[in-house]
Amino acid sequence: MSRIEKCFKQLKRQNKKAFIPYLTAGDPNIETSLNLMHALVQAGADIIELGYPFSDPSSDGPVIQRAVERSLAKHTSLKGVLALVKRFREENQDTPLVLMGYLNPIECMGYQKFAEDAEAAGVDGVLVVDMPPEEAHDLLQIIHRSELDCIFLVAPTTHEARARKICELSSGYVYYVSLKGVTGASHLDIDSVRTNVNQLKSYCELPIAIGFGIKDAETAAKLGELADAIIVGSALVSLIAELKDGHEYSRDELSKHIALMAGMRAALDRS
Is the peptide bond before 28 cis (omega within 30 degrees of 0)? Predict the structure, then answer.
C-alpha cells in the first residue's frame, strides 16, 4: 500500500479530510524549503505537493510564476528537488510527497532515470500538468514500475467520457480543478464545484482533491465538505514570497509565518 493510499484510508477512519499544501521547491532557497516542508507537517499537512521549477509554467498564475522564477534564479533543478526529498525523508518517513510540475524537466532527465531516482529519494506520486492522459502511456508504465502514483487533473470543462478515462488511469487521488483559469484565480463558484464533484464521485473510486482558488479558512471548510481533500497553493506561495532572500528560516520562524495553514487545517477539521 502506498503512502498516499494509506494516508487517505487513515483519514477516512478518522472522518477527516486531507490537507495538501503546495510549495515551489527552492523558493526562497532549498534550506528554507526543507524547513517549510517540516513546518507544514507540524501545521497539519497530510500530503505535500512539491513543485519542481520550469521556465514556462503555463497553468500557473502570477504568484506561482514568480515563485518559479525565484527558484530558477537559485539554480534549482529537478535533480536538486529529488535531493531535497531525500533529505526530508531522513526525518519524515510517513508524509506522502507528490512532485508537481511540467514534462520538460522529466524528458531531459529521461523517464526511467527520473522514476528510479524519484523512488529512491522517497517520492510517492507525480503530477505532470502538461501530460495529456492520451499521451501518457510510456511515462505511466515506467512510473508504475517504480511504484509511484500518477495523478491527473480534471477540469470543469472536462466531458464525462474523458473524465472517466482520467479516473481509470489515475492512482493516489484525482485533482479536481475548481475553476476555469490559472492557479490563484478568485472567481470560485462553489455551487458549480459541488455539482461537478458529485458527478465525478459517481464514477470515480479514487479520493478527489479540490485545488485552485482556496485562499482562506472559510473557503477551505466549504470545499472540504465536498471532497476528500483540499489543495492550497497560491495562498501559501504568497506567504513564502514575503520571506527574505538570503536568509535560511528555521521551522519555528516559519510556523509563525504560515499560521494561515494551521487555520485552514482547523477549519477543515470542523467542516
Answer: yes
